[in-house]
Amino acid sequence: MTHMTFTVGFDLDMTLIDSRPGIHACYLALAERTGTFIDADLAVTRLGPPLAEELINWFPEEQVPAMADLYREMYPTIAIAATPAMDGAREAIAAVRAAGGRTMVVTAKYEPNAKLHLTHLGIEPDVVVGDLWAEQKAEALREYRAGAYVGDHVGDVRGARTAGALSVAVATGPCPADELRAAGADVVLDDLSAFPAWLAGYREAEASRA
């Protein structure tokens, strides 16, 4: 990130958006539609990994692909409007842009639905890449030469480290700050509200070393 143009990646669920209300509603709707019990309260405490990793807890393995398709089909009408931005999300994106940087979202969420969330909330990153989890996220981070990746899950820390990017973690998801640090996060913030000040300090320090 020592160049004039730098790229910062962000996770989506529980980093930029509080996806719990929408996902909770969508799991309840899926349970009603299929007649299968899903503990939606439990499911929303462990957001981050791909959808299939949650559905396997409630459906036989052979049904998971079809259930994932049904969930994704129902998702736009149920989950998008119910999902707010996290505190500081818009300001974090704006801070990168104001510093002359490029923003990207790299998420395990189905990419079309990720884009619907961002559009609905008026959050406009330069790049959105979906369907990548943990170490897989490094593919997109490397492709766009991201210098830092911001996320709430230890899987996001692993993705950043695999890409050789600075891992900036926010303790707003299922992983507490100590767990994020233990996973190798370079920086741990309480939430994105602290990101603009951190970015300013980081950029200043980088400039002084250049």
Poorly predicted regions: none
Mean pLDDT: 96
| Largest β-sheet summary | 6 strands, parallel
Residue share in helix: 40-55%
Count of β-strands: 6
Number of helices: 10
- Order of strands across the widest beta sheet? 3-2-1-4-5-6
SSE class:
alpha/beta
DSSP strand content: 5-15%
Query: Ends: how far apart?
Result: 10 Å
Order of helices and strands: EHHHHHEHEHEHEHEH
The rough form would be described as: elongated
Radius of gyration, in Å, reads 17 Å
Give a structural overview.
By secondary structure, the protein is of the alpha/beta class. It is 47% helix and 12% strand. The protein contains ten helices and six strands; from the N terminus they run βαααααβαβαβαβαβα. Strands 3-2-1-4-5-6 form a six-stranded parallel β-sheet, with helices on both faces. Helix 1 (20-34) crosses helix 4 (64-79) and helix 7 packs across helix 8 (154-163). The termini are close together.
